[in-house]
Design goal:
5-stranded antiparallel beta sheet; about 45% strand; globular; about 130 residues; mainly beta; single chain
């Protein structure tokens, strides 16, 4: 039923970051879009992996075995991203996909992981993306 009075709602996030084991051969930079691969390890965003958030810290595990390191990941929230072709018409929750850890796009032609949805167009190619 539609509201006809003010209703207090609580919107806080109790825990919006998680710690993930890093995959073998990975070099994750702070701010990278990251995914979990089929083996359950954190990897940079790529086709075939499930997006989980953005790395809060970097980690160089290029020479280490899978699981040798952990990285904290911001798993939900809003982030300003450069998405080529962004415009005010994308304010309608247009989906955003990751081609790699710092390349974002509106098309999902190859099965790129879904990052989130445009919350607000900002300026130029920038938009605020809600993820998580």
């Amino acid at each position: 039923m539609a509201l006809d009075y003010n209703k207090i709602r609580f919107y806080g996030v109790l825990n919006s970051n998680e710690s993930y084991l890093v995959g073998s051969g990975e070099h994750i930079f702070q701010g990278s879009a990251v995914c979990v691969n089929s083996a359950g390890y954190l990897v940079t965003a790529r086709i075939g992996a499930a997006f989980v958030g953005f790395a809060r810290f970097g980690c160089d595990n290029r020479n280490g075995p899978a699981g040798a390191h952990r990285v904290d990941v911001q798993t939900d929230g809003k982030v300003i991203l450069e998405v080529p072709g962004a415009s005010v018409v994308d304010n309608n929750m247009t989906p955003v996909y990751a081609a790699d850890d710092d390349t974002f796009q509106f098309d999902n032609t190859l099965g790129e992981p879904l990052v989130g949805f445009v919350s607000r167009y900002n300026d130029g190619d920038q938009c605020v993306v809600k993820f998580g």
